[in-house]
Amino acid sequence: MTARTDMLRLHDLEPTTGEFRRAVIDGLGATPKTLPCKFLYDGEGSRLFEAICDLPEYYPTRTELAILGDRAPEMAAEIGSRAGIVEFGSGAGIKIRLLLAALDAPAAYIPVDISREALVAAARALAADFPGLHIAPVCADYTRPFALPAIGGRMPETMAGFFPGSTIGNFAPSEAVAFLARARRLLGAGAVMLVGADLPKDRAVLEAAYDDAAGVTAAFNRNLLVRMRRELGAELDLDGFRHEARWCPRHRRVEMHLVSLSRQEIRLGAHRFPFERGETIHTESSHKYAVPEFRALAGRSGWLPARTWTDAGDRFAVHLLRTG
Ligand SMILES: C[S@@+](CC[C@H](N)C(=O)[O-])C[C@H]1O[C@@H](n2cnc3c(N)ncnc32)[C@H](O)[C@@H]1O
Prior knowledge:
alpha/beta; Rossmann fold; 2 domains; binds S-adenosylmethionine
């Protein structure tokens, strides 16, 4: 470990194994069966997600990167000088590089992610490439309240939230409103927030993005079962489930499911979770928002939608929100 990485103090609020266990018991005990998508991400889940980002079918990452590549100077001007940046679900920390490079003297960067290994690796890589930037990684579940770490040195002039990747779409709309309202309180008066949100499009394009030919998204989805076995000692047949991605027009979302291939059960300690053939575990939703729809949703959370940037093909949008 180099001196510089020693200086990166991790604020560790990682969910415990007990929380994962509780979520599995509650989710598999419910009808229909479901599991929170945040548990898709451990070290392996984050590696698989990065592989998904490079797939030909997965247009969101390269489209959002292109928007940021073209528009980061405009976004940086909206944010202003000496900003403290809080990134929610920072992952490999690729997109933030475009913003950091365009910002005038950013005061601090606080990446927040549930996936500790990926968070630490990304923070170290950023520290190497942005020497002098104060980086304070926080391993936390951002669906729960948490405090920002104290930023040493000069206080930021503005706080800016950054939530790329259309991760906002993983929430149900009411949860997205609650999340944005919490982020607004966390960032404080005068803050701004940039949110990447995928736009509605053809069903075939959407379903392929979440069910690629190489089977990487299938492995990502099944990683939940792998984690349940390894971390919780669950007894289950890994090959007894297949991945499925389906567009749900009613909710305007792509749903990921694990479909049981036979009548079977998952056992977790004294708990038994029976499955019919074809019964599914709903593991992730990705809601798609047209620009006015997203702006209305952000408005319901107390933010004022200020600007929106989209790509030439109208595939993806990046929204700038202000507190007032
Ligand atoms: C769809 S990926 C996006 C990654 C990256 N921001 C991008 O745009 O490519 C979602 C990221 O959010 C993190 N994440 C998901 N749920 C979370 C939660 N409840 N709390 C904190 N981080 C979460 C995951 O670990 C992952 O890094």
